[in-house]
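Bumping my old thread because nobody answered last time. Still need a sequence for this structure:
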């Protein structure tokens, strides 16, 4: 594979390779030196055109741990403020010699667009409500390390599925690996058509006791036009993982959230008191998974330690 644009069309062999190599890179990250020379001489352009904390820092670190140079571009402080188009910006940065582009953008399809206009390897770091492939990969990696397998699991994803690129990428990934995906959320944020993609639409309260993995999604207020939920209080009451619902969650169930969390809205802070809440492990694992993605797209032929 030349790019990682989405999970839907990604090659299963590639996804498996990434998950296997991530294990090696996680070990590297636990060593005092934390660094490999693998991508020395390569340059990765970080185009984050939408706010990001975890994903941006994670990709930056992943590239640096592999000894690549990184160039960061943020639209607010660039010549796009002077009217330069996105494409011109890309061509100019590309002219400086770029091997990889990591792009986050509010428009679905932005990563595919970049891939059509550059010969560098393109990695989608989230395009609108479309996909966020490396998030799904780090989620899968976290589950695999904890539960020992990726197949035959029941994965429940709760909340704002409509706006969630994380939900979409996870759905495609878990289906590829032969696990069951359940979606739950308010009807305005979970259209019935989503059932045709291979997820079962369920009532959160009826399935809590039987899921292996529970992913809570952020209520994405910045993507909402009009009032899709009556109020934040109402949302919490019907769809939030409240203290009461947390009590009904089996201890063995992995509780995940891609971040950032609206504490007290979709998830109560008591979630942090249970041993199988793995939100920060997801973040830690994200660096190793992104190292693996960069490695397979940019260094293919070289050996890792
Ligand atoms: C997610 C994103 O930006 O898609 N966060 C992330 O990358 N860790 C989810 C979200 O914003 O709710």
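Sorry it took so long. Here it is:
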């Amino acid at each position: 594979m030349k790019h990682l644009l989405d999970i839907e069309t990604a090659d299963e062999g590639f996804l498996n390779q990434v998950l296997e190599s991530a294990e090696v890179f996680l070990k590297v990250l636990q060593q005092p030196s934390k660094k490999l020379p693998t991508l020395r001489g390569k340059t990765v352009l970080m185009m984050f055109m939408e706010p990001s904390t975890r994903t941006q820092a994670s990709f930056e670190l992943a590239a640096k741990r592999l000894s690549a140079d990184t160039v960061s571009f943020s639209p607010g402080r660039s010549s796009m403020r002077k009217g330069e188009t996105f494409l011109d910006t890309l061509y100019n940065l590309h002219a400086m010699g770029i091997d990889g582009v990591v792009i986050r953008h509010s428009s679905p399809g932005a990563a595919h667009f970049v891939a059509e206009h550059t010969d560098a390897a393109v990695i989608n770091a989230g395009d609108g409500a479309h996909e966020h492939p490396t998030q799904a990969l780090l989620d899968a990696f976290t589950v695999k390390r904890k539960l020992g397998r990726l197949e035959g699991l029941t994965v429940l994803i709760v909340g704002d599925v409509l706006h969630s690129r994380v939900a979409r990428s996870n759905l495609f990934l878990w289906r590829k690996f032969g696990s069951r995906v359940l979606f739950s959320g308010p009807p305005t944020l979970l259209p019935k058509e989503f059932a045709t993609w291979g997820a079962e639409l369920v009532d959160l309260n009826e399935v809590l006791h039987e899921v292996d993995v529970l992913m809570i999604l952020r209520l994405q207020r910045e993507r909402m036009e009009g009032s899709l939920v009556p109020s934040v209080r109402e949302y919490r009451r019907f769809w939030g993982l409240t203290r009461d619902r947390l009590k009904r969650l089996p201890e063995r169930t992995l509780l995940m959230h891609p971040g950032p969390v609206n504490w007290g809205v979709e998830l109560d802070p008591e979630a942090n008191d249970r041993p199988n809440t793995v939100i920060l492990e997801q973040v830690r694992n994200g660096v190793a998974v992104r190292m693996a993605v960069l490695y397979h797209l940019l260094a293919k032929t070289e050996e890792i330690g």
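DSSP finds ten helices and nine strands in the chain. Let me know if any region looks off to you.
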